[in-house]
Amino acid sequence: MASISYSYVSFLYPSNSLNPNKPFAFLPKLPNPNPFPSFRSSKLGAANSAPVQEEHHMSIDDLYRFFDLNLGKWTGSFHQFDGSGNLLQKINTRLSASSYGEDELISLIQTLYIEQPQSSTSISGHDEEAEWAEYKIKETNMFTVDKNQQICFFPKERAFSLRYQTAGMLETVLRQGVLGEDDTGDESPKNLKLPSRSPSIVCENCLYSQEKDRRARAFHIMDPRGFVDMLVIFLEDRGDRPLVYPSLGNMMDGQDRILPFLGKWEGHSVTKRSGVYGSTRAEADTVVLLEMDDKHKFIQDVTSLHGGQDVRTNVRWTGTISNNSVEFEGAYQLALLPGGMYMGYPSDIAKSVAESKSFHLEFCWLEAPGKRQRLVRTYDAEGLVVSSTYFSEVRV
Description:
This protein is mainly beta. Helix content is 10%, strand content 45%. It starts with a strand and ends with a strand.
C-alpha cells in the first residue's frame, strides 16, 4: 500500500519575490466587482463595515469542538470538476481522524485512503480485492489552526473554512487515484488536468448536513496566474458501517442545474474576520432573489440588513447561463454542480489584484428542496484571508 505524507504550509514564495508580505506573483489585471454587499474591497472597509463585536482567535474550547466535529471514520467519494462544472472523474475514499494530547497540546491526526483502480492484468472472472493508497495528513493543533491553515470555525452552524498554499496533496490523490499500480511513469497522467505545482491558493469550505451525518468539503484550486485550475468535492458519511459510498446525485447538465436555486431566499449570515482585520464578528439578515428571464438572463438581487441596525445594502447582479456555469457581467461566475451544489469564483482573480480589490470564493449546498447553506471566504489583493461568512437560507 502506498504511503505518502504531506504538509499544510502557510506560504510558499516565488523565488523572485522581494516582498515576503506578498506571497503571490499575480499578473497585472483589472478590478473585479463584488456581488456580496457585506464584503469591502479595502482593508479600511473590512475593518470599518457593519457594527461588530470583538472575537479572538480560536479558543481551546472551540478547538475541542472542531476536533469532535471531525473525529471518526468517514466513507466518501472524491469528485473532480473543471471550472465549468463538468465532471472529470470520481474516486472512492475513506478518512480516519483521531486526536491525542490534552489542553493546548491536543492535536488532530487524519489519514486519507484512496481506492486504487484494478490492475489491467487481473484474471478474467476473478474478483480482485480493492487496494487503497494511504496518505498521512499533517496534524492540526492550536498553532496550525491560526498560523498555517487559518481555520475559520462556526461551531453552532457546524461549518468551517480553511486555506492551503499548494495543491500538492490533491495532485498526489489524483495521480494515485487515476494511475495506481498501472502508473506508466510519465510526469503527468495522460488526459488529466492536475493542480499547479507552483504556489497557488487552495481554499476548502466545509458544510455539514442538517439532515444526516454527512458533510461536503469543497476545494477551489487556483494557479499563480489567478485562474481556477479545478474544483473538487469530497462527499462523506461518518461511520464504520458497511461501505456505501455517497455520491452526488442529480447528474443533469445545463440550465436544469440552476432550477433548484431559483426563487426568493431569506436567511441570516454570520461573518468572522481574520486577525489581521481585527478578529471581529458581524451578523446580517439577508434576502436573495434569483430569477431567470425568457432570454436566459440570470438575475441575482441581494439585500442585507446589518447587525439589527437600520443599515441596508442592495446589490443587483446579472449574468448569462452557458452549459453548467453562470457568467456574471462583473467577471464572476458560478459553476453549477450536481447534487444541488455550486461553487463561485472570479473569472480572473488577478484582475482584482492590480486595482487592490478583494475577491471571494463561494460554496453553496442545497441539500433539501427550499433549504440551503453557503460559505463565502474573502481574500484581499495580496491573497490574505479577510473573512469567512456562513449563510443559512430558506426559500419563501
